[in-house]
Amino acid sequence: MLTVHPDVRSIVRPEWFEAAPVRVVEQDEALELRRREATARVRTAPEPADVIAAVRTMYKRVGIDPTKTRPSSEALLRRVRKGDELPRINSLVDIVNWCSLETQLPYGLYDRNRMRGAVTLRLGRAGEEYEGIRKAIVHVAGRLTLADDEGPFGNPTSDSARTMVTTATTGALVVIFVPASLPQAVGAEAATLTRDRIAGHSGPTSFTF
Q1: Going from the N-terminus, what domains does the chain have, and what CATH number goes with each?
Q2: Are the C-beta atoms of residues 82 and 188 closer than 8 Å to each other?
Q3: Cis peptide leading into 71, omega within 30 of 0?
Q4: CA distance 146 to 108
Q5: pLDDT tens across 128-173, in order?
Q6: In sequence order, what E strands does the chain have?
Q7: Residues 114-142: b if buried by 16+ CB within 10 A, e if exposed
C-alpha cells in the first residue's frame, strides 16, 4: 500500500503496483532487441512536450531546477537523443527504463523484500538522505520522496542502494511519478503498459495495487 501525503497531492498523482513473483536475469536478449527497436523510434519521433513540461513543473513546484537535477525520464531521453543506447542493468530495471523513455514519466523500481512497513510519498525532511545506486549520498530534504519505516529510499531522479532491484529480487514495487496536472489516463496507460511488459518478460507474475 502506498499513501500520498496531503502536502503533495496537488503536485503528484502516482501510479503504483507490486509484482510478485518476478524473475530477474542479468540479460534478456529478446527484451534487448525490443528496447533497441524502441530506442531507434524515439530518436526520430517528436518529443511528448506536454508530458515533459508537466514533469519539469512538478519539480519546480518543490523548488527543484529540472535542468540541474533532471528527472530520470528526461535523462534517459537525452542519452538516447545523443545516440547512446539505454543502459543494461538487469531485465526488470531494463523494462522500467524502456517504459520511462517512451512515456517520459519518471519511474521508481524497488525490491519489496528490502523495504520495511508502509510506504509514503511525501516531501523529504531536513537532513534526510540515503546512499544512491552507484552514486554518493542523495539528499532529499524538500524533494518528492518515497519513505518506509526505515526512512527515505527513492525519488523521481535517483533511488537508493538499500532497495535496489537485483537478480535476487522476487517481488517488486513500481512507482510512476505522474504530475497531478496531467489527465489521469496518462498514468493509467503507462501503468498498464509496464505491467504488460513485466508479465511478458519477467512472468508469470501477479499484480497488486
Answers
A1: 2-208 (3.50.40.10)
A2: no
A3: no
A4: 9
A5: 999 999 878 999 999 999 999 999 999 999 999 999 999 999 999 9
A6: 2-4, 15-20, 107-111, 119-123, 129-131, 137-139, 144-148, 151-154, 172-176, 206-208
A7: bbeeebbbbbbeeebebebbeeeebebee
Please say whether the beta carbons of 72 and 107 come within 8 A. Answer: yes
**Are β-strands 172-176 and 107-111 bridged in parallel, bridged antiparallel, or unpaired?**
antiparallel
pLDDT tens figures, 8-40 = 999 999 999 999 999 999 999 999 999 999 999
* Rounded distance between C-alpha atoms, residue 96 and residue 180, angstroms: 21
Indicate the DSSP class of residue 177. Answer: -
81: nearest Cα among 107, 104, 65: 104
Helix, strand or coil, per DSSP, at residue 176: strand
What distance in Å separates the CA atoms of residue 156 and residue 209, rounded to the nearest whole number?
20
Q: What pTM was computed for the model? A: 0.97
